[in-house]
Write a structure and sequence with these properties.
nine-stranded mixed β-sheet; three-stranded antiparallel β-sheet; alpha+beta; binds adenosine-5'-diphosphate; Arc Repressor Mutant, subunit A; binds magnesium ion; 3 domains; binds zinc ion
């Protein structure tokens, strides 16, 4: 059987975080009472005229620079003509042709333990459409609040650089974090502010022609992107191996069923009757503007990750998690600047703190009650031996819930580590008495069981017993050597 190679390109749409819409002063925000954030311009009333949002242009410029693109010094807009009820003007203002704001760039993507350089064909600016709702009554309704929201499109280069679902997912994750770092998009796939449409085809490995592609829509999570692509690759292979032909079409993804389905056959460029938008002047960039925006670019995730690995001697895994969003990375650096040991800070942030934040449904570490100072203090309490690691977990949880200071929690709850030999021996003897079978096993040299007895003592002491001392004392009591 032939070895198949998948070729994957990606179109990503990102709603920009401007205050107002692309061509009018209506509010740009998710949701809202339907049809309350619109005006004659964004609902396409005859005689209304668009005025360009400078901030939106600058956000696309910022993204294009961060993606290593060439900038079109003069960039024009087009009308893409088609009828659909969510598009009141019957055309979308978009950038078509060879003057997108950014072109010929690239993004380095960590995937499967190596870096894949994904080339970018274009980064351009357009406007979003309204939203259709199909009601249970059989009627359809349309909400124009989203109509005219600034939308950036980022398209990867042909020939495609991505060849697996993991790489495509990694590209999207990396791109998302870059956009969020840049402050140009909130990256909320579940709210549709970041949407992606993978295009893929399959060919015999090593071939120099490309297969017929299909495009996938309705993917609203990273997981759906990966599953959808995996499914499509297998579907293409099955069609080709049974001697069939892949039809060029747009397909939807049904996440519940784990299946794609045909939506419509592909429309072609000429169907849209593109022509230059007569109501807008071209965007002209100056060297000054470009250099000013370039100088304001933040350190991007991949660079930050490398710096974290070198500067703080962190394993790649820890660094990758910490740089996922800028806020977490900044928080980590603050904890370390306050004197905490970097690896300990990373462990707490990626471990127990991340778990608490997820469980509470909080968006960012900044919104939780644990301050960088609290985390620094907690780490210090463990390192000085004032509390045990297991008590520290309880303390963190308490600080997280109440915002109290770690040392206060330790005081108020009497959680100080117990190293007093008499107290420890009393707990050790109780644990041995209550678990005679386990004790017998340890006496006979089954050292794996020792940890069980240590756990029993920790329970009796509510986590306060010095675990190293406990190990030693259990060994002593049972007459075995503990290293
Ligand atoms: P369309 O006009 O159909 O949207 P584009 O030419 O704009 O197609 O390409 C969209 C994306 O699909 C790009 O990322 C491109 O690299 C990718 N692409 C184009 N042809 C193929 C193909 N045969 N196989 C895989 N990806 C492709
Ligand atoms: Mg397309
Ligand atoms: Zn408006």
């Amino acid at each position: 059987m032939a070895e198949w190679e998948a070729c994957i390109g990606m179109e990503v749409h990102a709603e920009l975080l401007t205050d107002s819409k692309m061509f009018c002063s209506c509010v740009n925000a998710f949701g809202g009472e339907p049809n309350t954030r619109c005006c004659p311009v964004c609902t396409g009333m005859p005689g209304s005229l668009p005025v360009m949002n400078r901030k939106a242009v600058e956000m696309v410029l910022r993204t294009a620079l961060a993606l290593n693109c060439e900038i079109s010094m003069t960039s024009i807009f087009h009308r893409k003509n088609y009828f659909y009820p969510d598009l009141p003007k019957n055309y979308q203002i978009s950038q078509y042709g060879d003057t997108p704001i950014g072109k010929r760039g690239w993004l380095d993507v960590p995937a499967n333990g190596r870096i894949v350089r994904v080339h970018i064909r274009r980064v351009h600016l357009e406007e979003d459409t309204g939203k259709l709702f199909h009601l249970p009554t059989g009627e359809s309704a349309v909400d124009y609040n989203r109509s005219g929201v600034p939308l950036m499109e980022i398209v990867t280069e042909f020939p495609p650089d991505m060849h697996s679902a993991e790489e495509a997912r990694a590209y999207l994750e990396t791109l998302r974090s870059v956009l969020v770092y840049l402050g140009v998009c909130d990256g909320r796939m579940e709210q549709g502010s970041l949407r992606c449409e993978p295009n893929l085809s399959v060919r015999p490995g090593g071939g120099d022609t490309f297969g017929v592609k299909t495009e996938l829509k309705n993917l609203n999570s990273f997981r759906a992107v990966q599953r959808g692509i995996e499914y499509e690759i297998q579907r293409h292979i099955a069609v080709l191996e049974s001697g069939g032909k892949v039809v060029q079409e747009t397909r939807g993804w049904n996440d519940e069923r784990g299946e794609s389905f045909s939506m419509r056959t592909k429309e072609y460029e000429q169907d849209y009757r593109y022509f230059p938008e007569p109501d807008l002047v071209p965007v002209q960039f100056s060297e000054e503007w470009i250099e000013q925006v370039r100088a304001s670019l933040p350190e991007l995730p991949l660079t930050k990750r490398q710096r974290f690995i070198e500067q703080y001697a962190l394993p790649e895994y820890d660094a990758t998690l910490l740089v996922e969003d800028r806020c977490t990375a900044d928080y980590f650096e603050e904890v370390v600047a306050l004197g905490a040991e970097p690896k300990a800070a990373a462990n707490w942030m990626n471990g127990d703190l991340a778990r608490l934040i997820n469980a509470a449904g909080i968006e960012s570490v900044r919104e939780c009650k644990v301050t960088p100072r609290d985390l620094r203090d907690l780490i210090a309490l463990v390192q000085k031996g004032t509390i045990t690691g297991s008590v520290a977990k309880q303390v963190l949880e308490e600080v997280f819930q109440t915002g109290a200071e770690p040392s206060q929690v330790v005081q108020a709850k009497g959680l100080t580590q117990v190293s007093d030999a008499d107290q420890l021996i009393a707990w050790v003897r109780q644990a041995i008495e209550e678990n005679p079978d386990a004790a017998e096993k340890v006496r006979n040299g089954k050292m794996q069981t020792l940890q069980f007895l240590v756990g029993q003592v920790m329970k009796l002491s509510r986590g306060r017993a010095n675990p190293n001392e406990v190990r030693r004392l259990i060994g002593e009591e049972l007459g075995v050597t503990v290293e």
